[in-house]
Specification:
The chain is α+β, with helices and mostly antiparallel strands and 431 residues long. The protein is built from eight helices and 19 strands. The strands form four sheets. Strands 1, 2, 3, 16, 17, 18 and 19 form a seven-stranded antiparallel β-sheet that branches. A six-stranded mixed β-sheet has the order 6-7-5-4-10-11. The longest helix has 25 residues.
């Protein structure tokens, strides 16, 4: 069931894999020292793209919603990581309140909520699920595929605490990315740990800030390994004041796209890559695969049809798009039964807990795969990302590839840690 890499067994990625395996002790020590200085996000998922000549994260999510796609074999890792995370934050924790997204009818998403509930239960916590959706006025039981059930209860806010009827949690875990902004019910909580913090939500977060932090991390990691950071880093630029619905700011977008395509062409020439470069234009605060388009030539921007304009102008929860990130497009060379696939790495605290492939039969190698489609098949990694096999020829061993994905996933997680520190509204400022 493991997607087979169809890239040739040569090329920069295999050199990168070799370099990573040779440097394993140095890499793990480097991460260890970083985590002494920085706090990892509570949980993270990272979308990667492997082009054969380049391996890079293209998105980092701080409210991952696919824990149900991990295999049962990966569950012990997740439980241990959850124990470590809770121990660090609130060792005496007894009750955990899990707050999911408001769209209550997506059963796949709710299967993820049940899996999270299971993980934290096994980590030694009483876990209940509290909804901040105003439509949930009493305990609501929803049946899920596979015979499971989930019970959503309305949250109750007292003066400074959040809980449920007869349930007072010391820790609140958000699995809601707050795209529409942090509701007042979650603000000014006293003596309760809110994880991740409110400023990790998409009402505050910006992809450009994340990828600035990632660029810094990639440079330092590139120096450690003696590689060109570009091999693991997608170039990007930002463009503000864009209104797709009214066609405003398109000229500025055009010149930014043109400039980035020129830079990518230069890199492709340097490495002798014959692929056609492309960029991906995304809403800077976008999530759920919304507000994304692939641009292969600047002239594409002159012919935006109404459908594309509408798609780009509004994202989740009706948020209007005005700022975009223009990101170097990374092809994906992985296939599952002829369908294009991309790896997604899942982490909790500072540990990789597993991963899966996002597969979409109707999309091309240069398109966004996080999109509606019946063929969206999350497929769990067959091997653990923790145990590389030294001595194997680069590109030939699945565990080695998964270990490499875990390393790049952790780099993106470290970047998210830098990003959250830089955007923390309560950070202490030292002059």
């Amino acid at each position: 069931m493991v997607p087979h890499l169809i890239t040739a067994l040569t090329g920069p990625i295999n050199e990168l894999e070799q370099r990573i395996l040779e440097s394993l002790p140095a890499i793990e020590r480097w991460f260890r020292l970083e985590w002494m200085e920085h706090t990892p996000p509570f949980y993270t998922s990272v979308d990667l793209r492997n082009a054969g000549f380049k391996l890079a994260p293209v998105d980092t999510n701080l409210f991952p919603g696919g824990f149900n796609n991990l295999t049962p074999e990966m569950l012990p890792l997740a439980v241990q990581a959850a124990m470590a995370a809770i121990e660090k934050i609130c060792p005496e924790a007894r009750n955990l309140l899990l707050i999911p997204e408001n769209h209550t009818r997506n059963t796949f998403y709710l299967s993820n909520v049940v899996q999270l509930q299971r993980i934290f239960h096994m980590a030694g916590l009483n876990v209940r699920i509290g909804s901040i959706n105003p439509e949930i006025k009493e305990a609501t039981v929803i049946d899920l595929p596979g015979g499971e059930q989930v019970t959503l209860e309305p949250v109750i806010r007292s003066k400074h605490r959040l809980g449920l009827k007869d349930f007072d949690p010391c820790t609140i875990l958000l699995n809601n990315d707050l795209s529409a902004g942090a509701p007042g019910i979650l603000e000014e909580l006293h003596e309760q740990h809110l994880l991740p913090p409110l400023h990790a939500g998409w009402s505050v977060r910006r992809k450009t800030v994340h990828f600035q932090s990632y660029e810094e991390v990639a440079k330092r990691f590139g120096k450690l390994l003696g590689i060109d950071p570009w091999l693991i880093n997608p170039m990007f630029s930002q463009c503000g004041d864009v209104n797709f619905a009214e066609g405003l700011g398109i000229e500025a977008l055009r010149s930014n796209v043109d400039s980035l395509l020129t830079k990518i062409k230069r890199k492709y020439k340097e490495y002798g890559i014959n692929e056609k470069p492309f960029v991906v234009v995304k809403a800077d605060n976008g999530t759920y695969g919304m507000g994304i388009m692939t641009v292969r030539d600047v002239s594409d921007l002159d012919q935006l049809n109404r459908k594309t304009r509408n798609k780009m102008s509004v994202i989740k929860d009706g948020q209007v798009v005005s700022d975009v990130i223009i990101q170097e497009g990374v092809l994906t060379n992985e296939r599952m039964n002829d369908a294009v696939a991309e790896p997604v790495v899942y982490m909790m605290d500072r540990y990789v807990v597993g991963g899966f492939y996002r597969v979409h039969a109707e999309r091309g190698v240069d398109e966004n795969l996080n999109a509606p489609g019946a063929s969206f098949v999350p497929l769990a990694f067959a091997e653990t990302p923790h145990l590389p096999q030294p001595g194997m020829k680069p590109g030939a061993s699945v565990p080695n590839r998964f270990y490499m994905y875990g390393v790049i996933g952790r780099l993106a997680m470290l970047a998210a840690s830098y990003e959250l520190e830089s955007t923390d509204p309560e950070a202490e400022v030292y002059d």
